[in-house]
Amino acid sequence: MFKAVSKQMAPWLLVCASLQASLPALAQEAVQAQPNKADYTDPMGTEFMLIEAGKFMMGRDANDQNGYDPELPQHEVTIAKRFYLAKYETTQAIWQQIMGDNPSNFVDPNRPVENVSFNDIQTFIKKLSKKSTGLTYRLPTEAQWEYAARAGSNTAYFFGGNAGQLNLYGWYIGNTPGGTQLVGKLAANPWGLHDMYGNVAEWVEDCWHKYYLEAPKTDKAWTSNSGWFTNNCKERVLRGGSWFSPAFELRSAYRYKHFEFNRSQNKGFRLVLEKK
Fold first, then answer.
1. What is 121-171 written as a DSSP string?
2. DSSP states of 86-127 as a string?
């Protein structure tokens, strides 16, 4: 059962419903994901994929005019060490196990938890890490997130330069009746990760910087206040777009900001795991 939706959101939900009705049958029916085996499953039941080290071009190619200034300049980043990234966005069931409550608006144990702030997630991570001997959890860095979302591609989406196949991989304003959907219902990207595009926008570790000028050239989180920073790191980066986003905002390079205390029904997260 859904919780009540705010009056401000209601008009957008009507738009979603209208768009949903106009989609072809293929888009209206979720394409069932082919099962892919996780590389590691933790004691709480969260599945992780092992992402190998490598290099990639982060951000939007300046020759591509379809994007926003904060996606520039494009720059090479080295992912120096492989890492485990959650196969799915963190579900309400996992949050409930750790925190003892469920703040989500669209209630279902297998939907992503939402209505959680960056600060809420830090509390969750501390409690989860204490329960898991030999395991350390955190949010992905912005570079790790984009590297994993691209899955070896250099196009706007991992499947190509336009949104033609997006209905197969991501929940957005064009294929949902409003609200989040079950995690993993759509197909995974080539590296076995589901819902990297859409469903909920995902908080990452980095502070917001207006541009990539002076950005790290490694996979470390950009938390310093040097260069182009905003509001003394009280704003953090979100990635991937959400069920509330147009297709254009589900591109691999898309990024936006919000205050670290902000909560809303289109923001969630996925975890990085470090094994000691």
1. HHHHHHHHHHHSTTEEEEPPPHHHHHHHHHTT--SSBTTBSSSTTHHHH-B
2. ESSPPBHHHHHHHHS----SB--TTSBP-S--HHHHHHHHHH
Decide if 238 contacts 260 (C-beta within 8 A).
no
Q: How far is CA 144 from CA 52, 137, 163, 176, 220, in A?
A: 11, 14, 23, 28, 8
**Token pair of 228 as six digits:** 């182009």
pLDDT tens-digit profile of 180-208?
A: 999 999 999 999 999 999 999 999 999 99
pLDDT tens digits, one per residue of 25-61: 333 333 445 668 999 999 999 999 999 999 999 999 9
User: What is the crossing angle of helices 92-99 and 118-131, to 10°?
Assistant: 70
- Residue reference for tokens 């975890």: 271
Q: Is 87 left (phi over 0), alpha (psi -120 to 50) or beta?
A: alpha
Q: What is the mean pLDDT of the chain?
A: 88
Query: Bridge-partner residues for 77, per DSSP?
Result: 56
Q: What is the dihedral of CA 230, 235, 237, 243, to 10 degrees?
A: -130
| Residue (of 206, 28, 196) closest to 112 by Cα position | 196
Q: Give the pLDDT mean for 127-136.
A: 92
pLDDT tens digits along 174-187: 999 899 999 999 99
Could you tell me how far CA 211 lies from the centroid of its own chain?
Answer: 20
pLDDT surpassing 60 at residue 3: no
Q: Which domains does the chain have, with CATH numbers?
A: 10-275 (3.90.1580.10)
271: its two tokens: 């975890």
Rounded to 5°, the CA angle 270-220-259 comes to: 55
Cα dihedral sign, 105-108-111-116: positive
Q: Is 13 helix (H, G, I), strand (E, B) or coil?
A: helix
